[in-house]
Each structure stands twice: as structure tokens, then as C-alpha cells.
Specification:
Length: 297
């Protein structure tokens, strides 16, 4: 069976996966995200080891961003204006793919996760779909007609400014936009707001979760009005670590939309990832399988 290599670059760790399909993972290795040269050298060593065993058919790379996705750009495959220190304008896809003459797909980490959910998880059966991750940052994979949206850049809905919860005037933590969604509800933002090193132990009735639920419902409102996806999935460590959060978001969303648009009824419209924590690592595998199929056609 053909083997596919996938690299998910996150802000704190990189997950390298070798698989023949979603349910046939041959190897998975984790690398800490440190300095670019040290990190990329470790990934290159893993890819070289896999290739020495048997060539893989395609390579998928899903990265934190922003990233350059324009195939005609001289910096295609680079991380661009990321707030992560030291990682601005770093060559990712061209460098990792250079030794291997195989099709290579490059996208954002959240678009990768969205494609994995579309193929094997909570997005199965739909072509218009949104995947939100709330963790170190806030990202949105927006799938329209079965593919991630494209324009002059990729979707960055985690950085929209939304209606604030009444009485909440905190300045936010995003270095670019202050109180955007990411600046209000990302893990680091919550810790900065509360002056904590670790917010995971906060009780479910802490007032900060009112702000998080409200802000994410407002993000969903924006997504519904912009693209009307048939399903919204929300994952990431902040939401998965606070089980009470997810059920609060859809009622707040429906109240906010106020009947103006007919949000689908039946199964929960806002739901958890079907793949759980595997959505991110399997994203690059879905990307690699997709570009390999395109290359064969």
C-alpha cells in the first residue's frame, strides 16, 4: 500500500505521521517547536528515515501561520507574519520537500484538521464546513464546496473583532489586534487576563468562561453570516479541557442570529471533532492523499 507522510507544525510541538490511511498509522513522532533550524533539522531527519525504509507517495505539510499559500509566489510554503518569535519568513515546505520528488501539499494547520474531519470525522457528508480550534491560538478552517477558501491569503477568522460581552473592557492579548477572538479566548490570552501560569484548573463557574462562550458564539455568528456552513466543529485544548463550554455555544449562537438565518436543526450544529485529538495530525495525511490523487488524475 502507498505510504503518505504528514507534518503538522504547531506553536509548541510538531507531529510527524506516516500512514497508509486514517486507520493505518505506521509511525508517529513528536518534535518540540524550538528554534527554526533545530526544529526543521529534526523533522528532516524523521522524513529521511521514513524514505530510507520505503519512499512515500506524497507529503502533506500543515503549519501554524500566517503562511504563504500562493503557488506563484517566491515565498510559497513560508511562514510569514507569525507572532511566534524567530519564525517570521521561515522556509518550510520548499525546504522539507526538496529531497523528495513527490507531490507536496502545504496549508494551514487548521485547514489540514478541517480536511481530516471532512474525510473521516464530523464533516463527513457535507461540502461546506467550518473547523475552529481554540488552543495556543484561534484558527478557523473554512471549507467551501469541499475545499479550503482561497483569496489573496488564507482565512484568518480567529482575528476578527466581535461584539464584546457587556462589561468586558479588557484590552486583549493579541499583539496585532488586541481584543480580537484570539486575543480574548486563546489559552495564553486567558492566562494573561487572569495573571495565571496555568488556567486549566479553573472551575466551570468561573466568570472567564462566560466571556469565552460568548466570544466563540460571536465568531460562529460571523462564520454563519459569511459562509453558512452546514456544520461547525470546535476543538482545541481550551474547549476540550472545559467540557461545559461546547454545549453553551450553540444556544448563544442561535440567540445571536435571532432567526434571521435558518441554522440547521436535528443533530447539534456546533459539535466536537469526530477525530478528537487526531484531527490535527491526520490533516497533513488527508492533504497528502488528496494531492496524490490529483497528481494521478
Amino acid at each position: 500500500m502507498r505510504r503518505f507522510a504528514g507534518i503538522e507544525l504547531g506553536g509548541t510541538k510538531i507531529v510527524c505521521t506516516l500512514a497508509t490511511s486514517a486507520d493505518q498509522v505506521l509511525d508517529r513522532q513528536t518534535v518540540p517547536t524550538t528554534a527554526p533550524e533545530e526544529t526543521l533539522a529534526a523533522i528532516e531527519a524523521i522524513l529521511a528515515g521514513w524514505w530510507a525504509q520505503a519512499p512515500f507517495a506524497a507529503l502533506g505539510i500543515a503549519s501554524f501561520g500566517p503562511v504563504d499559500l500562493d503557488p506563484g509566489s517566491p515565498t510559497w510554503g513560508y511562514i510569514t507574519s507569525t507572532p511566534k518569535p524567530g519564525w517570521q519568513m521561515i522556509d518550510i515546505a520548499p525546504r522539507l520537500a526538496r529531497p523528495y520528488r513527490v507531490p507536496t501539499a502545504f496549508d494551514t494547520d487548521v485547514n489540514g484538521a478541517a480536511l481530516a474531519e471532512l474525510s473521516w470525522g464530523a464533516g463527513q457528508g457535507v461540502q461546506d464546513f467550518a473547523y475552529i480550534t481554540v488552543g495556543t491560538g484561534v484558527g478557523v478552517g473554512l471549507i467551501v464546496n469541499g475545499k479550503p477558501t482561497r483569496g489573496f491569503q488564507h482565512c484568518e477568522l480567529g482575528h476578527v473583532r466581535v461584539t464584546r460581552l457587556p462589561g468586558d473592557d479588557w484590552e486583549g492579548a493579541c499583539p496585532y489586534h488586541g481584543p480580537c477572538v484570539e486575543g480574548l479566548v486563546a489559552g495564553g490570552s486567558i492566562k494573561k487576563r487572569l495573571g495565571l501560569d496555568d488556567a486549566s484548573g479553573l472551575p466551570s463557574d468561573h466568570a472567564v468562561w462566560d466571556t469565552v462562550a460568548h466570544t466563540l458564539a460571536q465568531l460562529c455568528h460571523t462564520i454563519v453570516c459569511a459562509a453558512a456552513p452546514k456544520r461547525i466543529v470546535i476543538g482545541g485544548g481550551v474547549v476540550s479541557g472545559q467540557k461545559h463550554l461546547l454545549p453553551r455555544i450553540e444556544p448563544l449562537l442561535r440567540d445571536s442570529i435571532a432567526g434571521y438565518m435558518s441554522i440547521p436543526d436535528g443533530a447539534p450544529y456546533v459539535t466536537a471533532p469526530g477525530l478528537g485529538d487526531d484531527a490535527g495530525p491526520l490533516g497533513p495525511i488527508a492533504m497528502a492523499m488528496g494531492i496524490a490523487a490529483e497528481d494521478r488524475s
